[in-house]
Design a protein that fits this description.
Layout (H helix, E strand, L loop, with lengths): L1 E3 L11 E2 L4 E9 L2 E8 L2 H10 L6 H6 L1 H5 L3 E7 L24 E3 L11 E9 L3 E3 L9 E8 L4 H6 L4 E10 L9 E5 L6 E2 L9 E2 L2 E2 H38 L1
Antiparallel strand pairs: 1-5, 2-3, 3-4, 4-5, 6-11, 7-10, 8-11, 9-10, 9-12, 13-14
InterPro entries: DUF2330 (IPR019283)
Keywords: Membrane, Transmembrane, Transmembrane helix
Protein name: DUF2330 domain-containing protein
């Protein structure tokens, strides 16, 4: 299930009756996807509606939705549902794209606090300027591994438009998910400073299957031995010349 930030009341269509505490903004089939747009004033009622209509929302997640219910967020529930004549689904799935208007740039993270294993986040933000999270929200300090202007092509161009766009790519880890305190809210940085992470990879150089360092060391030792032998021969030759000169003088 995806979360949507609240839209202005004037923009939001009136929800249809979905039962006490739940409003159905819309529901449609998109290929094998059954998609429902919902509002809710009670997390328990939202979970009951989802369960009744074939969606699954664990009870702990329903309780964790209370802050979103208080802020009057919308919910997009998605499930895979075979067509009437199909019993099973097979093959690949086309991606779904969700778009909505919001006064704030927010990435929901609260529900990850229920995870029992360490979590990681890779966030790619397309905006007119470089962006950054306002806080760590209980994780390690976010690390930017790319920041710079790009010229989108293909599907990305259809999403962002034809002009240049600033891409900010962020990594963050959450070793203790229960420490997550809220959602990521992103803001513009003071400067649009470009950045690119550089990774160095080291590999063992081999020549005919033999490590190059071993050949280098062996070659150096051979040169040293050759030089030592040449020096010894030179010294011996000099000594012989001296002895010959001594015999002549005598």
């Amino acid at each position: 299930m995806a979360l949507r930030a609240q839209r202005d009341a004037a923009e939001a269509p009136p929800p249809s009756a979905g039962g006490p505490g739940v409003g159905v903004v819309g529901r449609e089939r998109l290929g094998p996807f059954d998609v429902a747009r919902l509002t809710a004033t009670d997390p328990g009622a939202l979970r009951n509606w989802l369960k009744t209509h074939g969606f699954h929302l664990p009870a702990p997640l329903a309780s964790a939705l209370r802050p979103y219910v208080a802020q009057r967020w919308e919910y997009v529930a998605i499930r895979l549902a075979p067509a009437e004549r199909q019993r099973t689904l097979s093959g690949t799935l086309d991606p779904l794209r969700l778009t909505f208007a919001s006064a704030r740039l927010v990435y929901p993270m609260r529900l990850s606090a229920l995870a029992t294993t360490p979590q990681s986040l890779g966030l790619y933000v397309l905006a007119p300027h470089r962006m950054e999270p306002r806080s760590t929200i209980g994780g390690s300090p976010p690390e930017v591994f790319f920041a710079g202007r790009i010229h989108p092509e293909g599907p990305l161009r259809a999403l962002t438009g034809s002009g240049p766009t600033f891409l900010t790519a962020i990594d963050q880890s959450f070793p203790q998910p229960h420490r997550i305190t809220g959602d990521h809210e992103l803001r513009r940085t003071t400067h649009d400073t470009p950045y690119r992470r550089v990774r160095y990879e080291y590999a063992l150089l081999k020549v005919a299957g033999v490590p190059a360092w071993l050949i280098t060391v062996a070659g150096t030792l051979l040169l040293l031995q050759t030089a030592s032998a040449a020096l010894a021969l030179t010294i011996a030759a000099r000594r012989r010349r001296r002895l010959a000169a001594t015999d002549t003088d005598g």
